[in-house]
Design a protein that fits this description.
The complex is a heterodimer.
Chain A lengths: L8 H24 L6 H29 L11 H31 L4 E3 L3 E3 L7 H36 L5 H4 L7
Helix pairs in contact in A: 1-2, 2-3, 3-4
Chain B lengths: L8 H23 L9 H9 L13 E11 L15 E11 L14 E7 L6 E6 L9 H11 L10 H10 L4 H9 L11 E2 L4 E4 L5 E10 L14 H12 L2 E9 L19 E14 L19 E3 L3 H22 L8
Antiparallel strand pairs in B: 1-2, 1-9, 2-3, 3-4, 5-7, 6-7, 6-10, 7-8, 8-9
Helix pairs in contact in B: 2-7, 3-4
The chains are: A mainly alpha, B alpha+beta.
The structure holds protoporphyrin IX containing FE (2 copies).
C-alpha cells in the first residue's frame, strides 16, 4: 500500500484544534487554581465544559488515527529515533486521555456535578471519597506537567524537522505541498 | 534533503529555542503566579494554616462534626426558584456543624464564630451552603479579608495579638463597622441548636421566567437557649448537641430575605433594612449527629458556589473568592488522607 505524504485532512484538523484547546486548558487550569478573583467561577465552568469536549475530541481523534494510513517518517531518520517518535506520540495520546478522565473522576470523588455548559450533566461514575479525590486531584496536576513536557519536546522536534532538517515531517501535519526532492 | 546555506542554521536554531523556550517560560510564569492579584488561594490557605497545618483537617473550621437529616420545604419559594428542593417536598442532606479556626482540638466555647454547612440534592441540582453566625462580613474583598486575618493573628514574636495592629486595621477599614457592632452585641448561646446561621453573601433565585431575585438566607433556631455549659469541657457544645439530637430532632427555619432595588447584593458588609420581605422556605431538620471520623461529611468540600439550577452566584467578590480557597484546603487535606498522614479519627 502506498503511504500518503501528509496526514488525512480530518487528522490534521483534529491535531490543530486540539493543540489550541489543550494549550488553553493548561493555561486556564494553572491560572484558575490560584485565583480568588470573580472570574474564577466562570473560568472553572468553561474549563470543565471544554475538558469534557477534549475527552470526546480525543476519542474521535483516536478513531481517525486508527482508521487512516499515516505518512511514514523519512528514511533519513535512524530506526531508534523513529521508535522514540512513535512512543512519544502514544504518550501524548495517553496524556490526552488521562487529563480529562482524571478531571472527571476527581469531580465524581468530590461529589461535584460535571456540567457541560447548560446542555447536560454527566453522571457520577465513582463514589464520594476523600482519598480518591486526593488521588485524582494529584494525578490531574502531575499528568498536566507531563503533558506540558511532552508538548514542549514535541514542538521542538517538529520545528527541528521543519526548519533544520527540512525533511517533510512538519509538512505532513501542516499539509503544505512539498517541493520535489 | 533540501540544500540550505549553513549560515542560516544558527538563526533556525534560535527560532526553535525562542519558540519552545518562550512557551515553556510563559507556562512556568503563569504557574508561578503571573497575572494573579496580590493574594492567591495558596497564600490564603497558607495564612489560615498559620505555618502549622493539622494534617488531614480543614484549614478553616477545622473542628466540627457530621450531621444528617432532611430539608422539609413548604413550597413557598417555588414562584421564585426552579430548584427542586424548594417544591413542597423533603430532601435529605448531609451537613457539618463547626467552629471557626484551624485547630481541630480547640475548646468549643472559645470560638468567636459557629457554623452550619449543608449539602443537598444530586448532580445539576446539588446545593451547598456554608453559613456562619455573623450576619455580615467585616470587609468587601478577599485582599482586605487577608489583611484582617493577618492583623488578628498572634504576633510571631510575642505569641499575643497585637492590639495596635488590630486598631490600625479597623481604622483603615470603616466598612467593618456593621460587623463590629454585631460582635459587640453578640452573646454566644449555650447550644449549636440555638444560634442563627447566616449565608452572609447574597445569591440569586431564578424562576421559570428567568427572573432573578437577590436573596440572603439564615437558619433560625426553633428552640430556646438551654442551661449554661461546663466551661472545662473542650467539647461542651458538641456533647450538648449529640445529647440533644439523641432525644429529639433539632429544627431550624430556613428564612430567606429578599433584596430590594436599593440593596447592593454584591456587598457582604451591609445589612439589608429590617422591613425587607422575609420568607420561610421550610425547615432544616437534623436527625443525626456523629463525630467527624464516623460520618461522611469529611468527604465534602462545602463550596458555597455549588448551586442548583434555579439559583446563581452574585458578583460579591468575597463569595467568588471562596471556591478557589476551599478547593486548595480540600486538595491539601485530601492528599494527606491519600498519603495516610491524617490521624485515625479524622
Ligand atoms: C485536556 C483536558 C484538561 C486539561 C489539559 C486540564 C488541565 C488542568 C490544569 C493544568 C489544572 C491546574 C492543575 C494545578 O495547577 O494543580 C487543572 C485544574 C482543574 N481541572 Fe482540569 N484539565 C483538563 C480537563 C478537565 C476536566 C474534564 C475537568 C472536570 C470535568 C477538569 C477539572 C479541573 C478542576 C476542577 C481543576 C481545579 C482543581 C482545584 O481547584 O483544586 N479538568 N486542569
Ligand atoms: C474570602 C472569604 C473566605 C475564605 C477565603 C474562606 C476560606 C475557607 C476555607 C479554606 C475553608 C475550609 C474548606 C475545606 O477544607 O473544606 C472554609 C470553611 C468554611 N467557611 Fe469559609 N472562607 C471565606 C468566607 C466565608 C464566609 C463569608 C462564610 C459564611 C457565610 C464562611 C463559612 C465557612 C464555613 C461554615 C466553613 C466550614 C464548612 C465545613 O464545615 O466544612 N466562609 N472557609
Amino acid at each position: 500500500m502506498s503511504q500518503p505524504t501528509t496526514y488525512a485532512l480530518s487528522a490534521r484538523v483534529m491535531h490543530w484544534a486540539m493543540a489550541l484547546l489543550l494549550l488553553s486548558m493548561i493555561f486556564a487550569g494553572l491560572a484558575m487554581v490560584q485565583s480568588l478573583q470573580p472570574w474564577h467561577l466562570t473560568l472553572l465552568g468553561l474549563h470543565k465544559s471544554f475538558g469534557v469536549i477534549a475527552l470526546l475530541a480525543v476519542i474521535v481523534r483516536l478513531i481517525i488515527r486508527l482508521r487512516n494510513a499515516t505518512p511514514a517518517l523519512p528514511d533519513s531518520i535512524p530506526a531508534m529515533q523513529k521508535r522514540i517518535a512513535h512512543a512519544s506520540h502514544w504518550l501524548l495520546y495517553a496524556a490526552m486521555f488521562a487529563m480529562p478522565l482524571s478531571g472527571y473522576f476527581m469531580q465524581n470523588a468530590a461529589g461535584r456535578p460535571v456540567a457541560v455548559f447548560d446542555w447536560f450533566t454527566l453522571p457520577a461514575l465513582l463514589p464520594e471519597s476523600l482519598p480518591l479525590y486526593g488521588f485524582f486531584r494529584e494525578m490531574h496536576a502531575l499528568v498536566a506537567w507531563a503533558l506540558i513536557a511532552l508538548l514542549l519536546i514535541h514542538i521542538a522536534a517538529a520545528l527541528h524537522h521543519g526548519l533544520v532538517k527540512r525533511d517533510g515531517v512538519l509538512q505532513s501535519m501542516t499539509g503544505r505541498k512539498q517541493k520535489q526532492q | 534533503m533540501l540544500k540550505q546555506k549553513p549560515s542560516a542554521l544558527p538563526l533556525r536554531y534560535a527560532i526553535i529555542l525562542g519558540a519552545v523556550g518562550g512557551l515553556g517560560a510563559l507556562i512556568f510564569a503563569v504557574a508561578g503566579g503571573l497575572g494573579q492579584s496580590a493574594v492567591t488561594a495558596q497564600d490564603f490557605v497558607d495564612l489560615q494554616e498559620g505555618g502549622n497545618p493539622h494534617l488531614g483537617f480543614r484549614r478553616a473550621h477545622a473542628k466540627g462534626f457530621c450531621i444528617a437529616g432532611e430539608f422539609v420545604s413548604n413550597g413557598s419559594l417555588q414562584p421564585f426558584s426552579t430548584a427542586p428542593m424548594f417544591a413542597a417536598s423533603s430532601t435529605p442532606f448531609v451537613g457539618r456543624i463547626s467552629i471557626a479556626g484551624n485547630n481541630p482540638t480547640a475548646p468549643d466555647l472559645n470560638a468567636p464564630v459557629r457554623s452550619l454547612a449543608l449539602s443537598l440534592g444530586e448532580g445539576a441540582n446539588r446545593w451547598q451552603t456554608a453559613m456562619n453566625t455573623p450576619p455580615v462580613m467585616a470587609v468587601v474583598t478577599p485582599e482586605a479579608f487577608y489583611e484582617q486575618l493577618q492583623a488578628l493573628s498572634p504576633d510571631p514574636e510575642t505569641g499575643e495579638r497585637n492590639p495596635e495592629r488590630i486598631r490600625a486595621f479597623f481604622a483603615e477599614h470603616p466598612e467593618t463597622q456593621t460587623f463590629r457592632n454585631w460582635q459587640a452585641g453578640y452573646t454566644p448561646s449555650n447550644s449549636f441548636a440555638t444560634e442563627i446561621y447566616h449565608s452572609i453573601n447574597a445569591f440569586y433565585l431564578i424562576n421559570e421566567n428567568g427572573e432573578r431575585q437577590a436573596v440572603r438566607w439564615a437558619a433560625m433556631p426553633t428552640v430556646n437557649n438551654g442551661e449554661p455549659l461546663n466551661s472545662d469541657d473542650t467539647n461542651a457544645l458538641q456533647n450538648e448537641f449529640f445529647n440533644r439530637v439523641e432525644s429529639a430532632p433539632v429544627a431550624f427555619d430556613l428564612t430567606f430575605t429578599f433584596a430590594s432595588g436599593a440593596d447592593d447584593e454584591t456587598n457582604p458588609t451591609v445589612l439589608w433594612p429590617s422591613e425587607r420581605r422575609n420568607m420561610i422556605a421550610g425547615q432544616i431538620v437534623v436527625q443525626k449527629a456523629v463525630p467527624e471520623g464516623e460520618g461522611n461529611c469529611n468527604n465534602i468540600n462545602f463550596d458555597p458556589l455549588i448551586l442548583p439550577t434555579g439559583m446563581a452566584a452574585t458578583a460579591d467578590p468575597i463569595l467568588r473568592a471562596r471556591s478557589a480557597a476551599y478547593a486548595e484546603s480540600y486538595r491539601r487535606r485530601a492528599r494527606e488522607h491519600l498519603l495516610q498522614q491524617a490521624p485515625e479519627n479524622n
